[in-house]
Amino acid sequence: MRLRALSLAITRSYFRDKLTLFFTFVFPLIFLVIFGLLFEHQSVDGRHFIDYTASGVMCWGVANAAMFGVAYTLIYWRNNDVLRLIRMTPTRLPTVIGSRLLVAVVVALAQAVLFISIATLPVFGLNVSGRAVLALPGLLLGVAAFFAIGLVVGTFVKSAEAIGAIGNCIIVPMAFLSGTFYPISASPLWMQDLARVLPLQYMVQSTRGLISGAAGFSSALVPCAALLGFTVLFAGLAARYFRWSPAA
């Protein structure tokens, strides 16, 4: 009951914020449109360029929303004593975090449906594979990994302004270093090596081939395991250093 009540409250607050909705659903689509039109008639490894762009933009948009969403929520709740009030109730910390994660999952699924639907329009021409549903584990593990990163950011950072700066320093370079908008194989070798320690790279790998039909589910097993590892690592750090109030 507490989980449901908190989740509904967070969802209402989330969808009432027009600026948040813009950066969650519209802003990533701008990149899909730009890259989709710029490379409309190009192919990579025998496949249409949109096969790489659509899933990459989807993963980047989902990761961005998952990380920033929980980080801003923690800062707002902590600085306005919401967390302190929750702590005085029977509600436990896993319920508080779980409610926010549930909202992140719902938002991610809505993003995925929107982005892939737009990419299938004739002007872009993405052909969605029948195995696309098998990309769901990778998508959800990606949400969990970036949600955990957001927990770490929201735990250590003290202001919303700082979250914007630090969060963008994390997610923007990662987007260009992880083969999000183009195949990682087209990048220099040093960039390919660096991408191996970036969670966004594994999120893209776990979804791209399944959505386009270029690969089977076995290709997503290692990326999914890597995302699970990132989730455990950053969730552990967040749990270790979590603060209920600014002075804690």
How would you describe this structure to a colleague?
The chain has 248 residues and is mostly helical. Helices cover 73% and strands 2% of the residues. It is built from 10 helices and 2 strands, in the order H-H-E-E-H-H-H-H-H-H-H-H. A two-stranded antiparallel ribbon has the order 1-2. Helix 3 (50-79) runs antiparallel to helix 5 (93-119). It is globular, with a radius of gyration of 18 Å. The two termini are 28 Å apart. The model has no long low-confidence stretch (mean pLDDT 88).
Percent range for β-strand residues = under 5%
Q: Strand order within the widest sheet?
A: 1-2
**Helical residue percent?**
over 70%
Overall average residue pLDDT = 88
String of helices and strands? HHEEHHHHHHHH
Structural class: mainly alpha
Task: Assign an overall shape.
Answer: globular
> What is the C-alpha radius of gyration, as a whole number of Å?
18 Å
Low-pLDDT windows of residues = none
CA(first)-CA(last) distance: 28 Å
Number of strands: 2
What's the total helix number? Answer: 10
> How would a textbook summarize the main sheet?
2 strands, antiparallel
